[in-house]
tRNA-(Ms[2]io[6]A)-hydroxylase
Amino acid sequence: MESSPLNTEFSQLLAPILGFLHCATPDEWLAEARKPEHLAALLVDHANCEMKAAMSAHRLVRRYCLPKDKRKLLPNLDFYKSLDALPEKGEVLGKQALTEDNRRVFDELAKNELLVKMVRLIQEELHHFEQVLEIMAARDIAYATLSASRYAGGLLRHVRTHEPAAIVDRLIIGAYIEARSCERFARLAPWLDDELARFYLSLLRSEARHYQDYLGLARDYAGRSIDDRVAFFGAREAELITSPDDQLRFHSGVPTGSH
């Protein structure tokens, strides 16, 4: 039996996510993922997922918030570590010690909702990445090379090639990735030790907000109903989650041999 159920706050937070996803995490995945011998690999994959989430959002900022000839001004993820908190009106402010190149980036960035939400998301994902590394270091788990799961690629292969359809699809995919992460953190947490359980539950709020941000941006960019595309990607996501998978990763499907 699992330990005590999530409290009311987490249950309310998860309710829209469970309604958004087309399937729950299969029990077969959970049965494998909770085994102590898989913890190191899952933590490494979790760290990779946090970094990939930050990189994906960074690519959206480069492509859709900067003119093509200015994209080189936003060089890498380190840029976001030098940003202060975002003020309410959506402008991005930097610390006084910003370099001249970084100041030029601020001058060039369009002040739009995509920028504001993606910068906040990137900062949070980078923080989560560092938190996972700290947990791994405390447990003497090396940050080793680990192959990626089929999950993200299996969704991205369906992205349309014309705009704004392409960004709408990418944003919908982002919503599904964040929603699935949130659902799996909640499913896995009761089976983990106290430190990891608290950490995974602490991620639920940000992952749930990221899912909402991505979905809201997709609707804004589309300018019309996206229900058909949301349903399409929901079905593809569920196929990846419920079909046999020869890898065990944070977003993998049913482990091969668990039937």
